[in-house]
Write a structure and sequence with these properties.
The chain is mostly helical and 464 residues long. Helices cover 79% and strands 0% of the residues.
Length: 464
């Protein structure tokens, strides 16, 4: 089988994950990317705190990518990240031996011709290529792979840099809006351990994190800063396409939240006190309506997005994850109790699903080293949330959320997304990875609310 000049399929079959091309091309990528990032930092941020944050975030990302590669190779001993690589490798071999078969497999993966060739050439019958979400990653990695003879570490570094760009864009949005909280925004967007690690490999997650960050910045730049309309419209359209192609539920969670953010921002331009008072609840209702409308319209064009189909898929996924976890003796799975697969059933189970995404696994549920790290992060998140509610008071906590457009945006997206992944993961290991798109937003909201509460405290003392 053709794998460039450094590897062969027998090596892959023997699960040798790293080859000479990794040691040759990965350092080259690191040198080039470091030069580019340092030049950008020098040109745009020299003499500011942003310079330090960008350079540190870059170095952290490189270290996390190397750690991620080692963990998947020697701790997990495989995983979907290497299946992506295997598919890329076999596509390269197929291009060299049967161009017609390669064309059908890559560009018409659901056709009869592709199915015929996949059974002969592709691992797992080409199942990763027939799934639209995994195919995006393979398609991307296949063409980037020409630059590095399919170096796994090189491809992982490229995906990590996409995630870093998105995280940096997200940081720039909130650092501009809250310049006195630049350190807190940097922690939220650039240095959360779970986000740094799980967005650092050849997976769908780094691409989604990167696209979501660019999407958020483009919306902010276009609708709030009112700059570069053509560029931002193009980026918004492209990022929506990328996210929908990989993980459509991100957009479904994000749409009502960003709708609420924009309209809450425009509320400041309203002069009438009455209209300003009622615009918040109205926008909340409209935001939920937009989310329902998006889902309804998608269901018209794709049956799998209809509510009944989503429920059926969720149920099948949950049953399979629980069964496979029990079969393998895994201690990483969780349940939400008996679930009624209806709208009312979803509302009943929502608090449990949100809780599991935000705060679990608890320390006593972490039976593996990787889960122990996730449990520490969950414990910190729980402590920060409870402490904030206790210090501000529950009523005032709700009021602070209602008074701040950015907090509303972050909380709405976080809660919807936390429910989505908590309801469908049913495995703590998978959950740690799936929840990373909303974690920066949740921490941003916590830090903004904490700052608001601190500013309120002296005023409350004076009034008393």
């Amino acid at each position: 089988m053709y794998l460039g000049i450094f590897t062969n399929i027998n090596d892959l079959a023997a699960k040798n994950y790293f080859f000479l091309n990794d040691f040759l091309f990965a350092p080259i990528f690191i040198f080039i990317s470091y030069t580019i990032v340092s030049n950008i930092a020098e040109k745009n941020y020299k003499g500011t705190v942003h310079y330090k944050y960008l350079m540190t975030a870059y170095k952290v990302k490189i270290v996390c990518t190397i750690l991620f590669s080692l963990v998947y190779a020697f701790y997990y001993r495989g995983g979907d990240t290497f299946i992506y690589l295997y598919n890329v490798v076999q596509l390269r071999d197929l291009l060299a031996t049967n161009t017609e078969a390669w064309y059908y497999v890559l560009f018409h993966s659901n056709s009869f011709e592709a199915a015929y060739h996949m059974s002969d050439y592709m691992i797992n019958g080409g199942s990763y290529l027939t799934d639209s979400s995994t195919k995006v990653v393979i398609f991307f990695a296949f063409f980037v792979g020409f630059l590095c003879f399919n170096s796994y570490v090189f491809l992982s570094l490229v995906c990590s840099m996409i995630a870093l760009i998105g995280c940096w864009k997200l940081y720039r949005v909130f650092a501009e809006l809250y310049p006195t909280l630049h350190k807190e925004m940097a922690i939220s967007c650039l240095f959360l351990p779970s986000v740094c690690f799980w967005s650092a490999g050849l997976l769908k997650d780094p691409i989604c994190v990167g696209a979501l960050g660019i999407f958020t910045y483009s919306i902010y730049d276009l609708l709030i800063k009112k700059r570069a309309p053509l560029k931002n419209l193009f980026l918004i359209g492209l990022m929506i396409y990328v996210i929908v192609s990989i993980k459509v539920y991100i957009i479904l969670s994000y749409a009502p939240a960003v709708f609420m953010w924009i309209f809450s921002r425009y509320r400041y331009t309203i002069q009438s006190p009455f209209i300003k008072a009622i615009i918040g609840p109205v926008m909340m209702v409209l935001g939920v309506g937009v989310g329902v409308l998006v889902l309804t319209q998608m269901a018209r064009f794709a049956e799998r997005y209809a509510f009944e189909e989503l429920m059926r898929t969720a149920k099948d996924t949950q049953n399979w994850l629980v069964y496979s976890s029990q079969l393998s003796g895994s201690t990483s799975f969780y349940t939400l109790g008996d679930i009624e697969y209806s709208m009312m059933g979803l509302l009943k189970v929502a608090p449990k699903a949100i809780n599991v995404s935000l705060f679990r696994p608890y320390i006593w549920e972490a039976k593996k080293p990787m889960l122990f790290i996730a449990s520490i992060e969950g414990m910190i998140t729980f402590f920060m949330t409870v402490r904030l509610i206790f210090k501000s008071g529950f009523i005032n906590f709700i009021k602070m959320i209602a008074d701040n457009p950015e907090v509303q945006f972050c909380i709405i997206f976080s809660v919807i997304f936390a429910f989505a992944v908590g309801f469908t993961s049913f495995n703590f290991g998978a959950l740690a990875r799936y929840k990373i798109p909303f974690m920066p937003f949740y921490y941003i909201a916590l830090f903004i609310l904490s700052d608001t509460q601190k500013k309120q405290a002296p005023q409350l003392v004076k009034s008393n």
